[in-house]
Design a protein that fits this description.
The protein is of the alpha/beta class and 342 residues long. Helices cover 29% and strands 26% of the residues. The longest helix has 12 residues, at 147-158. It comes from Candidatus Scalindua rubra.
């Protein structure tokens, strides 16, 4: 089969012919139809500091996909040949303290698809049946492949009630854009999006943002306070992984508000805990992965019902062999979500 493989501890990947993987008794062989490009894939391709410490070649990359079950192991009971599936990319052990207490998304023995397991940039993929998700027939393939990052956005937005709230979204990458649509569908009354990329700010308006701001050209603190009658926003959703943006967000949260943080930071961050958190009684949520599988049920309902249309965010489509084009667009910020047809 053909696959995109990270073969060396240096920048780049290779499109290679590799053996089709074999299944065990509880595994499923999947024919991948579509996979999509994530920022994690860019980090691995570019061999960033995170990748150098977390990723060990050789490995097939990728973790977002939709495909059909081709073959099942002897002990598989939850899916059958022909089922259209996606999968939870956080592969938990089911045995540790966190898994036994309903926090499998932070499993102590967590393995990541496309990092610790061979991933989705391939014609075929093998996964244990317990991570598979059978897709609703009303969700088209291009939407089914983005359910995993869509779920990240759901948990960031909905960790607390957001209806009738004012919201600042920091970072308009694909997940921030998903969050914009989710916040609008969930009843947020004012959605402000901040990002230095005008291309993505334009998409945010299509997804329901009331105000789109460029922090390189506009005074975010002044404009957010002006839009909220000097109260500040009830909710900040931080997707940028930028220390300056984080501090801007903390400055404009109304006392008693909350911030959800999904963005990943390259270095340690500096914030004024006394002034911006403790004395304002701010609630901070760290978000990772998705709740397995309750978030997937929410994702499926948002998408199958049409309550959120992610169409404007899916901007580019390539064949898997042209994965380098998708990686470059993601790196340069000249896209929304990029999908690869296998």
């Amino acid at each position: 089969m053909k696959a995109v493989v990270k073969t060396k501890r240096s920048k780049g990947m290779e499109f290679l012919k590799v053996p089709t993987p074999r299944i065990g008794p509880r595994d499923v062989l999947i024919k991948v139809k579509i996979t999509s490009v994530c920022g994690t894939d860019v980090h691995i391709h570019d061999w960033t500091l995170w990748a150098q410490h977390r990723f060990t070649p050789p490995r097939i990359v990728g973790h977002e996909f939709v495909g059909n079950v081709k073959k099942i192991g002897d002990e598989v009971t939850r899916v059958k040949v022909g089922d259209r599936v996606s999968a939870e990319s956080h592969i938990s052990c089911g045995r540790c303290y966190q898994c036994q207490n309903g926090y499998s998304e932070v499993c102590r023995n967590l393995k990541l698809l496309g990092v610790d397991y061979d991933g989705t940039y391939a014609e075929y993929l093998v996964l244990p049946e317990h991570v598979l998700w059978k897709n609703d027939s009303n969700i088209p393939d291009e939407w089914a492949t983005i359910q995993e990052p869509f779920g990240n956005a759901i948990d960031t937005v909905m960790v607390e009630d957001i209806s009738a709230k004012t919201v600042l979204i920091l970072g308009a990458g694909p997940v921030g854009l998903f969050a914009t649509g989710i916040a609008r569908a969930s009843g947020a009354t004012l959605i402000i999006v901040s990002d230095p990329n005008n291309y993505r700010l334009a998409i945010s308006k299509k997804m329901g943002a009331h105000i789109a701001l460029n922090p390189r050209k506009q005074d975010i603190t002044h404009l957010v306070l002006e839009a909220t009658k000097n109260n500040g926003v009830d909710v900040v959703l931080e997707f940028s992984g930028n220390n300056q943006a984080l501090n801007q967000g903390l400055k404009v949260i109304t006392p008693g508000g909350r911030i959800s943080i999904l963005g990943i930071y390259e270095r340690r961050v500096s914030i004024d805990l006394n002034k911006e958190v403790i004395f304002k009684k701010i609630r901070i949520y760290g978000i990772t992965g998705r709740k397995i599988f309750s978030t997937w049920h929410k994702t499926s309902r948002f998408l199958s019902s049409g309550l959120v249309d992610p169409g404007p965010i899916i901007t580019h489509r390539f064949l898997l062999s042209n994965y380098e084009k998708g990686i470059k667009l993601m790196r340069d910020g000249k896209c929304g979500k990029v999908i690869l047809k296998v």
